[in-house]
Amino acid sequence: MMSPRWLFLWPGFCLMLFGLAGYALALPQAHVFGVELGAHTLLFASLSMICGYQAILFGALTKVFAVSEGLLPEDPRLTRLFRIVRLEEGLLAGTAAMIAGIVFLAVSISQWRARHFGHLDYAQTMKWVIPGVTLTALGFQTVLWSFFTSILGMRRR
User: Fold this and answer.
1) In which element (H, E) is residue 35 found?
2) Cα–Cα distances in Å, from 68 out to 62, 81, 115?
3) Averaged pLDDT of the chain
4) For 48-96, how does the pLDDT look when each residue is reduced to its tens digit (9 = 90+)?
């Protein structure tokens, strides 16, 4: 609790970067050291991004709680951040990510419908489904984080 930056924030950023790198390599089906990176790499990259994002959000919540309870001193960067990013902005960003994810999922369902709900090309379909699920999950986490951060910060205002 006394060092959320090192316990949650930086590991979360590393996981997010690892996930983004995985996406950058898996979406074009890059070949690295003779290995083709495809849908399975995309799935692992999504897991890394979701876990990393959750760690970042948890680190931020821990920091807000620790400051509001007097366990850590006020952080001017945190105060500036909450002047800019309020509940409404978090809700908008989270909702936008969820909508984008749902669009990806709708495209995959449309592709399936076009095939009369029969067999699909797995590699092609997963390029829509995995990012759609990931964006929807990240957006939902953002909405919940926005509400909870706002609740934790009520005493500070």
Assistant:
1) strand 35-36
2) 10, 15, 55
3) 90
4) 999 999 999 999 888 888 888 888 888 888 778 777 878 899 999 999 9
Whole-model pTM: value is 0.86
Note the pLDDT of residue 5.
Answer: 81
Q: Residue 157 above 80 pLDDT? A: no
> What is the helix (H) or strand (E) element at residue 101, kind and residue range?
helix 87-114
**CA separation for the pair 104, 97 (Å, rounded):** 11
- The C-alpha atoms of residue 135 and residue 14 are separated, in whole angstroms, by 18
Provide the residue ranges of all domains of the chain, joining segments of one domain with +: 4-156
How would you class 54 by CB atoms within 10 Å of its CB: exposed for 0-12, middle for 13-18, buried for 19 or more?
Answer: middle
Mean predicted confidence (pLDDT) in 129-141: 97
Residues written for the chain: 157
Contact 9, 55 (CB under 8 A): yes
Give 6: exposed, middle or buried? Use CB within 10 Å, 0-12, 13-18, 19+: exposed
Side-chain half-sphere CA neighbours of 24 within 13 A: 6
Please list the alpha-helical segments (H only) found in 27-86: 39-68, 76-84
